[in-house]
From TrEMBL:
Species per Swiss-Prot/TrEMBL record: Albula glossodonta (roundjaw bonefish)
Residue ranges, compositional bias (Basic and acidic residues): 31-41, 269-291
Name of the protein described by the UniProt record: Abasic site processing protein HMCES
Keyword Heme: no
EC supergroup of this enzyme: hydrolase
Region Disordered: start-end pairs: 18-53, 223-314
Length: 314
C-alpha cells in the first residue's frame, strides 16, 4: 500500500520527538541503540531497503531491562524473517514492506512503532495534523505507525540485521479515494505505550488498537517522488492534478513545508542514498544444526502474498 515515506529529522531530533510515557505515566526520552544513529539518514523520499527510526521495548535487546523502557533502533524497511536461509538479504523474493492487520496472528514477529514525518501512496502525500509542543519537542508531531520487526542472520554468521514491515488496515473514509488500505496509525502516547508494552498488554488487546483512523491530511505530489534517487523538498510539494502547475497547499501542508525549509542545516545529516546492507547474520537452525525447512506461519503468509501478487499481475 505504502511504498514511500519521508523522515527529515536528524537523529537527535528523532529522539526528542519520540518521547513516550512509561507505565507510571512518566515522560521519557528514548536513546538510540548503540551505533544505530549512524545508520539512519534523514530523507524526503525513503523507499524499501532504506533505514528508518523504529521505537520498541529495550527488553528485546536486554532481557534485564524493564519491559516499558523504550529504545530507538535503525531498521531496514522490508521484513526479512529469521528463517530466511540465503546469505544475502537482498535475495528475499517476497514483498514484505507492508502486511495486513487481519493476518497478524499468523506471523511470528515482534511489535514496534515506525516513526515518520509523512507517507506516500502513488502521487499522494499523507501526514499528521498536529504540532507537538512540550519541553522536549516543539516541531511537528511524528506520524507513529504500528509495525512488526524481526532479526535475521545468514548461515555464515555475523552481525544481526533488524528489519520491519508496516501494518496496514482498511482505509478511513477520507482516504478511500486514494487506496483501500492505509497504515495502522497509533494515535497518541497511550496507544503507542499499549502497542509496545507486550508484558502488560495481551496480543489480542493490542490488535484492537489497529483501527482505521481519520487523523491524516493529504495532498497530491509530483511523480518526481517515484524515483527513489530524488531527495529534496520537491518530493513533498503540493501539485495540481492533471497538470504541472502547483496547487494551493492546505494550511497544514504550508506550515509543514515552512518548518522543513527553516530547519537549521547544521542539525541535518547528508540526504539518504540508497545503499545495500551487507550485514552478515546467523540463520535459524534445527536441532541437528541444519537450516530449518519447516514452513511456519510467516512463510505461509509470504507465499500467499506472492501468489496474490502474481494473480493481480496476470
Amino acid at each position: 500500500m505504502c511504498g514511500r515515506t519521508a523522515c527529515t529529522l536528524a537523529s537527535d531530533e528523532i529522539s526528542r520527538a519520540s518521547t513516550y510515557r512509561d507505565r507510571g505515566g512518566h515522560r521519557r526520552r528514548p536513546q538510540w541503540r548503540d551505533g544505530d544513529s549512524d545508520k539512519y539518514r534523514p530523507s524526503y523520499n525513503k523507499s524499501p531497503q532504506s533505514h528508518s527510526p523504529v521505537l520498541l521495548s529495550r527488553k528485546h535487546f536486554d532481557k534485564e531491562a524493564p519491559v516499558d523502557e523504550c529504545v530507538l533502533a535503525a531498521m531496514r524497511w522490508g521484513l526479512v524473517p529469521a528463517w530466511f536461509r540465503e546469505n544475502d538479504p537482498n535475495k528475499m523474493q517476497y514483498s514484505t514492506s507492508n502486511c495486513r492487520s487481519e493476518s497478524l496472528l499468523e506471523k511470528k514477529s515482534y511489535k514496534c512503532q515506525v516513526a515518520q514525518s509523512s507517507g506516500f501512496k502513488g502521487d499522494t502525500l499523507a501526514q499528521g495534523e498536529e504540532e507537538e509542543k512540550d519541553s522536549e519537542w516543539t516541531g511537528w508531531r511524528l506520524l507513529t505507525i504500528a509495525g512488526l520487526f524481526d532479526s535475521w542472520t545468514p548461515p555464515c554468521g555475523g552481525e544481526t540485521l533488524y528489519t520491519y514491515t508496516v501494518i496496514t488496515v482498511n482505509a478511513s473514509p477520507n482516504l478511500q479515494s486514494i487506496h483501500d488500505r492505509m497504515p495502522a496509525v497509533l494515535d497518541g502516547e497511550e496507544e503507542v505505550r499499549r502497542w509496545l508494552d507486550y508484558g502488560e498488554v495481551r496480543s489480542l488487546d493490542a490488535l484492537k488498537l489497529l483501527q482505521s483512523k481519520d487523523t491524516l491530511t493529504f495532498h497530491p505530489v509530483s511523480s518526481f517522488v517515484n524515483n527513489s534517487r530524488n531527495n529534496s523538498p520537491e518530493c513533498l510539494q503540493p501539485v495540481e492534478l492533471g497538470g504541472k502547475k502547483e496547487s494551493r497547499p492546505s494550511a497544514s501542508s504550508k506550515m509543514m513545508m515552512s518548518w522543513l525549509k527553516s530547519a537549521t542545516p547544521g542539525k541535518r545529516k547528508a540526504p539518504e542514498e540508497d545503499t545495500k546492507d551487507n550485514n552478515p547474520l546467523r540463520g535459524e537452525k534445527d536441532k541437528h544444526g541444519q537450516p530449518s525447512k519447516e514452513t511456519g506461519p510467516l512463510q505461509k503468509w509470504l507465499l500467499k502474498s506472492e501468489t496474490s501478487k502474481k494473480a493481480r499481475d496476470s
